[in-house]
Write a structure and sequence with these properties.
The protein is an alpha/beta fold. The protein contains eight helices and five strands, in the order E-H-E-H-H-E-H-H-E-H-H-E-H.
């Protein structure tokens, strides 16, 4: 059985990843491609508990190292429970965020540096690399405005807020943004950057184009 394909979506809060991952999964469904959709942090029962610890802005502030360690604890569980078994079964894994997020947010945003994140990735994740990373990078201002609106809506509906990261100031997000750009420059064969203020349909088209290319390379057909 040929190994599946590991695709990750990355971007700032409010970059539209969640909408795009749903559309991409529907596109794959129509083509009878077997996909597994997951997200980080979360996606497993243990991961959902780690996610609650990480994102609840009502709990005590986490040290940056704790935050990074929890992200990797969550990831190790997702790799063992979901990602590796699916890839081994020949499935396509669509993962909303992966180690690039830790490098961008903890390495860049929290200023822990890339080296530490990449070292932990080698140690804890066996250096598992996505075959393709779709990095959605609309303007910083547009992303922030969307994230704020989304968080207000979510809090009004559920009484819960998940805005620990969204409370961060502009400087934090600028560092995250810059780190994402650095990752894309370093790894152009893996990371496809989708930028500019594009419509949802335009972003979807670019995603489908990048994914089709990889599918052709893998199976000889899209
Ligand atoms: P989530 O609600 O999944 O946001 P989004 O829909 O924007 O992906 O929240 C995930 C938050 O956790 C987001 O602010 C980014 C942050 N994060 C990190 O800081 N490091 C990481 O390694 C990961 C996976 C997420």
């Amino acid at each position: 059985m040929p190994r599946g394909l590991f695709i990750t979506l990355e971007g700032l809060d409010g970059s539209g990843k969640t909408t795009q991952i749903k559309r991409l999964a529907a596109w794959m469904d129509k083509r009878n491609l077997q996909t597994v959709v997951t997200r980080q942090p979360g996606g497993t029962a243990t991961g959902d508990r780690i996610r609650a610890l990480l994102l609840d802005s009502g709990s005590a502030p986490l040290a940056s190292m704790t935050e990074m360690a929890l992200m990797f604890a969550d990831r190790a569980q997702a790799i063992a429970e979901i990602i590796e078994p699916a890839l081994a079964a020949g499935r396509i894994v669509l993962c909303d965020r992966f180690t690039d997020s830790t490098e961008a947010y903890q390495g860049g945003g929290r200023q822990l540096g890339s080296e530490r994140v990449l070292e932990l990735h080698r140690l804890i994740c066996g250096d598992l690399q996505p075959d393709l990373t779709l990095l959605l990078l609309p303007s910083l201002e547009a992303s922030l405005a969307r994230a704020r609106r989304r968080n207000e809506k979510h809090a009004a509906k559920t009484g819960q807020d998940e805005n620990r990261f969204e409370q961060e100031q502009g400087e934090f997000f600028r560092r995250v943004w810059e780190k994402y750009r650095e990752i894309a420059r370093r790894d152009p064969g893996r990371v496809v950057v989708i930028e500019g203020n594009l419509s949802i349909d335009e972003v979807h088209e670019q995603i489908v184009e990048a994914v089709s290319e990889r599918l052709v390379a893998l199976h000889g057909a899209a």
